[in-house]
Amino acid sequence: MADVTQTVALLVLAQNYRGNVVRQINRRSALLKLLPLVQGEGKNCAWSVQGSGQIGENYTEGADASNFGSDEQVEALLSWGHYRANFHVSGTARRTAATSRSPMGVQNLVGRNMQDALTRLVSVCNAALFTGAGTGTTIAGLDVAVADNTNTYAGIDRTTKTYFKPYVIDPGAPTNISFAQIRTDLGAIYNASGEQPDIAICSTAVFNQVVDLFDENRRWIQDVTTARGAVKLDAGYGGVEVDGCVFIRDKDATEGQIYYLNTSHVHIEYLPLEASIMEALGEMGLLLSADDGYGSWPLGILVHALAKNGDSDRYEALTNLQLVVDRPNSCGARLNVATA
């Protein structure tokens, strides 16, 4: 009988996978990490706005009072945004995954899909915080709330209610950013509101242009303090500070723009679940916090089971939330920032 060398090709071996399944997806959501979270109520995000109208004047001795006025009050309304991520897992897939030795992280296939759905949902919401149109069931993002001062925001026409305008500067063509421009922007916002933005959100390309203004002695900031509290940014460098305003990059920020935000007047409002539903969820669902690697956010996200479709389990992760800029004149935007 011939002598046959035993090789790997002649062996019957199980294929094992080292460690966990490695995600190749960037779903980091910096803006969601930085803004305060507030539980909302009712059918709308609603707040009251007061504009100047009170009269103050010089008068001559003994003159009758004839000029009267008072500050006006109007309502600001935003509809709730509706966002969800759905997934389904067949019974066969769930059973085979549960009996597989590797890779780690797939034995509980429903749990892994649930985690994936949450990170995707949060990433979609973070993108909408910038570009959401604010119509129907969409978030009114920063492009609507902060980067436009001639539109109608939260039902208030800014062409007539000028006190509800953010500071917006558009040079009309891509223009290199400078420290002088940034200081001018921050000063204009201070003059309009008496307050200064604490963070400036921008795309990576714009962020790099700001970083290039510094010499090699620039200091990277990893811990940022906003109205939400102390927030630790991702590993490595995070932001750079200009006159008390920390510049931070976000993958979802509209290219060529800087959003100056006063986090005391910008927050995310969400609808929490009713206590009775939370107590009755049980096997029908879980109230979860979303975590994309930056940390957890209690966005009132509900993951619940839908009706079965044969030997397949179906789930839906959903949230109702809205971005609220309750004092636009404390925020602003610079458009047409050159990135080349």
Descriptive report:
The protein has 340 residues and is of the alpha+beta class. The chain has a domain at 30-48 and 78-270 and 322-334. Helices cover 20% and strands 29% of the residues. The chain has 7 helices and 18 strands. The chain has helices at 30-34, 91-98, 109-131, 142-145, 179-193, 204-211, 275-280; strands at residues 37-39, 44-51, 72-79, 81-90, 152-153, 156-157, 167-169, 199-202, 223-226, 229-232, 239-242, 245-249, 258-261, 266-270, 285-291, 296-305, 312-325, 332-334. The strands form 5 sheets. Strands 1, 4, 14, 15, 16 and 17 form a 6-stranded mixed beta sheet that branches. A 6-stranded mixed beta sheet has the order 7-18-13-8-12-11. It is elongated. The termini are far apart. Mean pLDDT is 85; it is low at 280-284.
List keywords for this structure.
340 residues; six-stranded mixed sheet; 29% strand; alpha+beta
Helical/strand content category: alpha+beta
Instruction: Give the % helix.
Output: 10-25%
What order do the helices and strands follow? HEEEEHHHEEEHEHEEEEEEHEEEE
Number of helices: 7
| Beta strand count | 18
| Residues in β-strands, percent | 25-35%
Biggest sheet record: 6 strands, mixed
Provide the low-confidence segments as ranges. Answer: 280-284
Summed over residues and divided by their number, the pLDDT gives a mean of: 85
Integer-rounded radius of gyration: 26 Å
Q: How many angstroms does the end-to-end distance come to?
A: 72 Å
Shape: elongated
